[in-house]
Amino acid sequence: HPIDIVILDVNLPGEDARQIVSGLREKSTASIILSSGYTEEDIEPSLLQDSAVKAFLAKPYGVETLVDTIDQVRLRAKQQEEHED
User: Fold this and answer.
1) For residue range 7-37, what is the model confidence (pLDDT) as tens digits?
2) Which residues contact 40 (CB under 8 A, 6 or more apart)?
3) What pLDDT digit, counting tens, does each position of 31-60 carry?
4) How far is CA 76 from CA 54, 83, 84, in A?
5) Alpha-carbon span 54 to 72, nearest angstrom
6) What pLDDT sits at residue 1?
7) The pairing of beta strand 53-58 with beta strand 5-9
């Protein structure tokens, strides 16, 4: 089954979120939801504006918020696909 959404923590030890996002964008059509203990204002704007990044979740968040965000991202992707056809 193809992966349609990736939830990526911005602060991975020894990793660069920008490089991960870039690599995912090049190899996949998956939408990325960024997650961080920092606020959205603390995240590098170019990372948030990357075309593959579709949402941001500030920690802590509950399962309901996560599921709602995934549903919203999937709905927007579906609407965009329908618009392109």
Assistant:
1) 999 999 999 999 999 999 999 999 999 999 9
2) 48, 56, 58
3) 999 999 999 999 999 999 999 999 999 999
4) 9, 10, 12
5) 9
6) 77
7) unpaired
